[in-house]
Every structure is written in C-alpha cells, then in structure tokens.
Specification:
- This protein is mainly α and 145 residues long.
- The chain has one domain (5-127).
- The protein has helices at 5-42, 48-83, 89-106, 112-127.
- Helix 1 packs antiparallel against helix 2, helix 1 packs antiparallel against helix 4 (112-127) and helix 3 runs antiparallel to helix 4.
- The longest helix is centred in the first third of the chain and has 38 residues, at 5-42.
- It is rod-shaped.
- The model has no long low-confidence stretch (mean pLDDT 86).
- Keywords: Membrane, Transmembrane, Transmembrane helix.
- The chain crosses the membrane at residues 9-32, 61-82, 94-127.
- InterPro entries: DUF4064.
C-alpha cells in the first residue's frame, strides 16, 4: 500500500482555491455588479443599450466563472475521494487531469494555478505505483550453471 499524501494535499489545495475563487467571484458580482452597472449607465459616451449589453455580458461572464470553478472543485473532491482507495488511484489521476485541462480551457487559463495543481496530482496518481515487497526468487534456491 502506497501513501498518497502528496496527491491528496495537491488536490485539497486545488479544491480550496477553486472554491475560494467561486465564492469571491460570486461576492464580487453581488456587491460590485450594481455599482459597475450604474457607472456604465452614468457614462455619457455609452448609450443605454450598450450599457445594458455590457452589464449583462460581464454579469453572465462572472457567473460562468463561478459555475466552472464550482464544478472544478466538485471534481477535485471526487478525485480526492477516489484516492482514498489505492486501487482507484488511476481513476483519480484521470479525474484530476481531465479537471485540470477542462478548467484551464473553460476559464481561459484564469484558473492556471489550480489546473497545474490538479495536473501534477493526476500525473503522480497515475505514475506512482506501489513497490512489490515480495521477492520473486526464493532465497533458498541456488542457480547452477
């Protein structure tokens, strides 16, 4: 049985950063979203229709990042749970790698740090194998030539 402490720590850090990013982005949208919209409407160089379009675009983009970060955090938790069983380490590695690639692409590399953490955890989960402690040769046999 091999300890998967490094993979678990990288996964936990990735989950925490994704969850924190989702929460902070949601709070920012809720608190500053109305103020930004008001600033757009008060700008004399921007028409009301353009202000509506830009306000909905930035609000939708913010919620998109919240959803992608939350899904990445959930998939990270799934990878960590799969690591608890040593026989599922390959599946956990695949989950981590898929999460890393999708979150990087879907957030336009906005979650670069968490993607790297998930990628490293996934590669480690797949590559690291337990050392076979049983000797294949019997120590009592002598080879004769």
């Amino acid at each position: 049985m091999i300890k998967r402490t490094a993979e678990k720590v990288l996964g936990i850090i990735g989950v925490v950063l994704n969850a924190l990013g989702a929460i902070l982005t949601g709070i920012f949208i809720g608190v500053a979203g109305d103020e930004i919209s008001q600033e757009l409407y008060n700008d004399p160089t921007i028409t009301t229709e353009d202000a509506d379009i830009m306000s909905s675009f930035f609000g939708g983009l913010g919620w998109y990042f919240v959803v992608v970060s939350a899904i990445s955090a959930i998939l990270g938790i799934v990878g960590i749970v799969l690591l608890r069983r040593n026989s599922k380490s390959t599946a956990a590695g695949v989950v981590f790698i898929v999460t890393a690639v999708l979150s990087a692409i879907l957030t336009l590399f906005g979650s670069f740090v968490t993607s790297i953490l998930y990628l490293v955890a996934g590669i480690m989960a797949i590559v690291r194998k337990p050392i076979n402690q049983h000797n294949t040769q019997d120590s009592n046999t002598i080879d004769s030539y």
